[in-house]
Amino acid sequence: ALEEGPELSKLRRRLVPHAPGPVAVSLARRDSEEAWALRDELIGSVPGGVAASLAGLDSERAWALRDRILTDHSADAVVLAAVAVGLSGLDSDRAWNVRERLLPALDAYASLRSIHGCASDRAFSLRARLADRAPRPVLHSVGGSEDDRAWRLRERLGPRVEEALDSIFGLGSPRAWALRETLQDRWPSSVLKSLG
Question: Distance (Å, rounded) from C-alpha 26 to C-alpha 53?
Fold first, then answer.
């Protein structure tokens, strides 16, 4: 991700009137005062984008905004899916309590996006339950992971979907090379893309 700086700030400000949703999403994992000011400005027009921008943020400020969005938009399935996306990278009990409230209303894709970057047993249990029904988002959710459970998913699903290779983008471990070798005849272009 680009580092915060005056050029990025000016670009976001110029784009707010034309693309408020993408501007909000571009704030993901950003905890600067400027990011918070933009979230405050955009919450009324693009609550889903603001919710998604909270990905990876575990501060009280982020939780207060999530709670506000959940309260104000409890019947909006699109916003609820964005709240789930905004939980990615958070594997705490607090994040799981929100996920468990949202899961019945979410499709498999949104459920799995909410656990991207999570390595708990709960996260891998959800992946295992959804692997046959939604293999692509399952594999996306383990992108970059060297966890043994992620490797088992890749090895099982790789012959069916090339996203197994997308999930090892840039990895150079022996298991990554073995998976590339195993799948090179089935998915040759994805093997090449996985190299980084």
Answer: 7
